[in-house]
Amino acid sequence: MKTLVTGAAGFVGKHLLEHLRSESQEVYGTTKSSRETEGFVTVDLMNFERLRSVLDQVRPGVIYHLAAFSSPALSFKQPVAAINETLAMEINLYEACLQLNIPPKFIIISSGQIYGKAGPKELPLSETSSLDFNSPYTVAKVGQENLAKMYAKRGFNSIIARPFNHIGPGQQPGFLVSDLAKQIAELEKHDAPTPLKVGNLSSKRDFTDVRDIVRAYSLLAEKGVPGEVYNVCSGRSVPGQQILNQLLSLSSKPIKAEPDPAKMRPSDIPDLYGDATKIHQATGWQPVIPLEQTLRDVLDDWRLRA
Ligand code: A2R
Fold first, then answer.
1. Ligand 1 proximity of 46 Cβ (cutoff 6 Å)
2. Ligand 1 mean position, distance from CA 245 (Å)
3. Which domains, from first to last, does the chain contain?
4. Which of 8, 62, 227, 305 shows a CA-CA span of 20 to 30 A to 256?
């Protein structure tokens, strides 16, 4: 059976391709951009005719749909694109499959961010916790879930994953761990004692290594129940300050951290973590890569990139 991964050249997509290929699956990864096409199928998911032609050629049995407007922060600056493009891409996928009369199983990637602001009594967040819409990104993600439910009525089996914060090698700047590791790698290269700039580090978040996350997606494709929603998370939260301390302890030179008012977000939610019981019971999945290993790998990755 053939597998298609959309957004395969992205942070998560590259790890997912590697994981699926390590299991000897026949995998086709799509990318929109022309900058990195080797080993990928180039298709803009906004281009319906081209997408239908690719699906007609591949005729996948499973589609991992990762392509999306993926930055919550940028979604505030480009709300129309964030919502329209994310939803249009998914509609195009389902509609093209309808026209071709092919019934792949879909893994739709939503987000743990759709739970929004939770009080301490609501933690850990389970799949039945109430939702909140705190960014165009989260509106788009809930829209993706609703589209999957709508297309279920037209015969498609879709499983929805709600990943919490994922971290690992290859992540772009704009996310806490990646930002801190990038700065440390750059400061290691310079002699000047420039301080590292940090934002609010008191917020606690539920971090999982991206390599554990993609393993969860693959297990959901195999054992998840169509129509169901699954949190993908570690089940515990870690403060940003702990991440910084651990990264600094891995640095090859002493580095000082300094608060940067530009990085402070006053409305930060103090604590968020999910409940991964449902995915564990359905698939046996649990994260296995320790946080320290992930941080080491992210820093090494930035040392190569910086
Ligand atoms: O620009 P490319 O070729 O790298 O593709 C991006 C892809 N994408 C699209 N693909 C086809 N047609 C489009 N119109 C289009 N717009 C975007 O989505 C990119 O490779 C991918 C997203 O990758 P990243 O930005 O690295 O996101 P990440 O962290 O891998 O997130 C994957 C999924 C997303 O649904 C997130 O919302 C969720 O996991 O957290």
1. yes
2. 31
3. 2-168+208-235+273-289 (3.40.50.720), 176-202+238-269+301-305 (3.90.25.10)
4. 305
